[in-house]
Design goal:
The complex is a heterodimer.
Chain A lengths: L1 H28 L9 H4 L2 H26 L3 H31 L8 H32 L9 H29 L1
Helix pairs in contact in A: 1-5, 1-6, 3-4, 3-6, 4-5, 5-6
Chain B lengths: L23 H5 L4 H29 L10 H35 L8 H20 L28 H29 L12 H33 L12 H35 L6 H15 L14 H13 L1 H15 L8 H23 L2 H7 L3 H31 L5 H27 L15 H32 L37 H6 L19
Helix pairs in contact in B: 2-3, 2-4, 2-15, 3-4, 3-5, 3-7, 4-5, 5-6, 6-7, 6-8, 7-8, 7-10, 7-11, 7-13, 8-10, 10-11, 11-13, 11-14, 13-14, 14-15
The chains are: A mainly alpha, B mainly alpha.
């Protein structure tokens, strides 16, 4: 049905506004930190950049999963869904590593406005990645159980759209937080 | 195949709903849009009574100068809860609920596009309200920082109690419900229309619900993000809105009103839709300038996104920003004025039947114009600086939300009650309700314009015995009790009519939109046969095959539903 795909598109539009507001809050305070940690003093753009590549690659693999579905290639669908989950999980691992590193140096959400905006923005993005991982795992489980014979599936297409969206948000977030501070 | 009358496609699996089991479970577990709609209406009626009692306590406190009936703390809780309740748990869910009931019927569909999400929306609304009201039973009491909860007053150092936390959590929950409902409506209206129901033939109520739903989809995330930040501030010690720690109190105002101004159009556009359905039927004429009513709604929706800072003139944003927001706000008067002209032109030369729905719709036009005119006045920066945070503002927004939205809501209840229940509401009690409401409403709020210009500030629990203030406030309080009496008559009317009202039949008002083509109340499956839609008034075309609205229109069998 066209309903599901239309729904997920409007949902993504609505989510975009939500992230836009979090990004605006970050931008609003970017130059107003007077004491305490800043993006420049506390973040490592190279490590996070490398972990970001994993997330970007997962957008490619989820696209390959969709292509496999279209070609009724069930082993391809399983493989690429699994690869997407692994790549997404690696990104989340990288984010957890970064967060605990910051906690270890005493940088938390209550440190200052940088801490508040940074942890809120990346935290909500990470939460969305986790939700996506859950949905992808459900898809993989259903595929292993014999569902999704192709060539079309609203479930796969909608989760795929959502995953691309989560990826796109990260490109903006990475640019605003890391590139703006270090370029 | 072209001669076949189009029917709604059968669902492949039966949807749970009003089955043989009509006990409580059939309601709680229901995903039928009509049952969910009715539950919305019952829920809002309960919240309406609660919010009304809060208003009565406020007005009783203000009846005489220097009154000590309520403590300042209690008074703050009451006006905060009154505003929050009436906006988020009465007007907004009523309009969403009546839309949930009527939109599928009006477009000839079997149900909403996502019936389970529809149920989720309702239960999020219901439990959001419970969460908000639970705060009364906590040690620290209800939220007491006003319905817009300005930072830093709503932040930790100034509000150590849990009130604002409950406030943000309750509204976050019910807001997500509204957002889901908006998404559901948009998809339903765009994809579930019966063959022949083109966008240019959509009933105007559905058009208004569509624009409102788009607003919900795009502005609820704004306030959701703001609630999240406020909660993080209060619970985890973040510093978004605390200037003492580098945050920005103005940012909260921008975020709140970035949502808050479109919100007032969410509160009034479906009300415009109700009036646009009622006035043609009771004037026995098609709506005048259909395209302009629909088009001006879209214009209002778009303009409403760019005017939020007219709530913030007193902040001192600078002359350029003030000038822009002042002009942009005044622009909204144009599409709104177009609508008023359309309604009046529809009545002009019609055979007007002043039954109760039409009385409320007519009073709506007059009172909404009063609220609109005072709105244009305070869109002007110098006037706003004089009257901001005074009773003039209180009078203004009660004329728009009570005189506007609520009068349209009453019109809608009297108009669609026969469809909802199969029985007519009593006209006699309805007329008592109408006149008591008109007298009580104007007595309560018109005089507040003058109190505001004389300098009486809003949100203060008492006042000194300034010349005339005591007597003017007393008049306002007496008006409030007349409104309370009118609500009692209204509820009595509902109870009596449910039991002994005259059987309504399918179409008691001889209306023209599709919801009147089925029985009252409609069966679970809505329609046995959806009448062919060849124009904007399908039931007129059906009754007058010799003079249809669009003589050249063909019967369409291929539509969105195939």
């Amino acid at each position: 049905m066209a309903n599901n795909r239309m729904m997920i598109k409007f949902f993504i539009a609505s989510e975009s506004i939500f992230f836009l507001m979090l990004i605006l809050a970050y931008v609003n305070f970017h130059n107003s930190v007077t004491t305490g940690p800043t993006a420049k003093s506390s973040l490592d753009p190279y490590v996070t950049g490398i972990f970001s590549l994993f997330l970007l690659a997962s957008s490619f693999t989820v696209w390959l999963a969709g292509k496999s579905l279209k070609n009724r290639n069930r082993s391809g669908l399983k493989l690429w869904l699994f690869a997407t989950i692994v790549l997404g999980a690696v990104f989340i691992f990288g984010q957890a590593r970064e967060w605990f590193g910051l906690f270890g140096r005493g940088i938390t959400i209550s440190s200052n406005v940088f801490g508040s905006t940074f942890f809120t923005l990346t935290g909500f993005h990470g939460f969305h990645v986790c939700v996506g991982l859950v949905m992808l795992s459900v898809l993989l489980g259903l595929t292993l159980a014999g569902d999704f014979k192709g060539p079309k599936s609203d479930a796969v297409e909608c989760v795929s759209l959502y995953w691309h969206f989560v990826d796109g948000v990260w490109i903006v977030v990475f640019s605003v937080i890391y590139l703006w501070a270090f370029l | 195949m072209s001669s076949r009358i189009p029917i709604v496609p059968e669902s492949t699996e039966p949807l749970p709903g009003l089955g043989e089991n009509t006990g409580l479970l059939s309601w709680v577990a229901s995903i039928d849009h009509k049952q969910i709609g009715i539950m919305y209406l019952i829920g809002t009626l309960i919240y309406f009574v609660i919010g009304g009692l809060e208003a009565l306590m406020i007005r009783t406190q203000l009846a005489k100068p220097g009154s000590e009936l309520l403590s300042p703390e209690m008074y703050n809780q009451l006006f905060t809860m009154h505003g929050t309740t009436m906006i988020f748990f009465v007007v907004m869910p009523f309009l969403i609920g009546v839309g949930v009931y009527l939109v599928p019927l009006m477009i000839g569909a079997r149900d909403m596009a996502f019936p389970r999400l529809n149920a989720l929306s309702f239960w999020l609304f219901a439990f959001g309200g419970v969460l908000l009201y639970y705060s009364f039973f906590t040690q620290s009491g209800a939220p007491d920082v006003g319905w817009f909860a300005y930072a830093p007053l709503s932040e930790k150092p100034f509000s150590l109690n849990n009130g604002p936390t409950y406030w943000a959590l309750g509204l976050l929950v019910s807001g997500i419900g509204s957002l889901i409902s908006g998404l559901n409506n948009v998809v339903t209206i765009l994809t579930m229309r019966t063959p022949g129901m083109t966008m240019r033939r959509l009933p105007l109520f559905v058009w208004m619900m569509l624009v409102t739903s788009f607003l919900l989809v795009f502005v609820i995330p704004i306030i959701t993000s703001a609630f999240v930040m406020l909660l993080l501030d209060r619970l985890l010690g973040a510093t978004f809105f605390t200037p003492a720690f580098g945050g920005s109190a103005i940012l909260w105002q921008h975020f709140f009103w970035g949502f808050g101004h479109p919100e007032v159009y969410i509160l009034v556009l479906p009300a415009f839709g109700i009036v646009s359905e009622v006035i043609p039927v009771f004037s026995r004429k098609p709506i005048y300038g259909y395209e302009f009513v629909a088009g001006s709604t879209v214009a209002i929706g778009l303009l409403s996104l760019g005017v939020w800072a007219h709530h913030m003139f007193a902040v001192g944003l600078g002359n350029v920003a003030n000038a822009y927001f002042s002009l942009a706000s005044m622009l909204i008067a144009i599409p709104t004025g177009i609508k008023v002209l359309n309604w009046v032109s529809t009545m002009w030369g019609g055979r007007i039947n002043f039954a109760v729905p039409m009385l409320f719709a007519t009073a709506f036009i007059i009172e909404f114009v009063v609220g609109g005119l005072s709105g244009v006045a305070i869109a002007s920066v110098p006037i706003d600086w004089v009257v901001t945070d005074s009773y003039f503002i209180v009078a203004h927004f009660h004329y728009t939300i009570f005189g506007g939205s609520l009068f349209a809501i009453f019109a809608g209840v009297y108009y669609w009650f026969p469809k909802f229940t199969g029985r007519m509401m009593s006209e006699t009690l309805g007329k008592w309700h109408f006149w008591l409401t008109v007298v009580g409403f104007n007595m309560t709020f018109f005089i507040q314009h003058f109190l505001g210009v004389m300098g009486m500030p809003r949100r203060t629990y008492t006042y000194h015995d300034m010349p005339y203030w005591g007597s003017m406030n007393l008049i306002s309080t007496i008006g409030a009790f007349i409104i309370a009496l009118s609500v009692l008559v209204f509820i009595w009317n509902i109870i009596v009519s449910l039991r002994k009202g005259e059987p309504a039949g399918d179409n008691p008002w001889k209306a023209w939109t599709l919801e009147w083509a089925t029985t009252s109340p409609p069966p679970v499956y809505n329609f046995k046969l959806v009448p062919p839609v060849r124009g904007r008034r399908p039931l007129w075309d059906l009754a007058h095959p010799d003079s249809p609205d669009e003589p050249d229109a063909k019967i369409v069998t291929e539509g969105p539903n195939g």
